Amino acid sequence: MSKILVVEDSKNIREEICEILQFEGFEVIWAENGAQGFEQAKKESPSLIISDISMPKLNGYQLLTELQKSNMIIPFIFLSGKTELPDLRKGMNMGADDYLIKPFNTDELIKVVKNKLKKQQLIKENIDELVEENEYSLKEAGRMAKIGYWRYIKQTDTVFWSEAVHQIYGTSPKEGVPEIDIILNCFDKKSRILLIEATVTLSTNGVPFDIELQMTNLKNEKRWIRNIGEPIYNDRNEIIGRRGVSQDITEQKLIRIEVEKTDEMYRLLADHSNDLICLHEPDSTFKYISPSIKNLLGYEQSEFLGKQVFSLIHKDELPFLKKAIKEKVFRSKIAGANTFRVRHKNGYYVWLEFLTLSLIHISEPTRLLSI
Question: Is the pLDDT of residue 363 over 50?
Answer without folding.
Answer: no
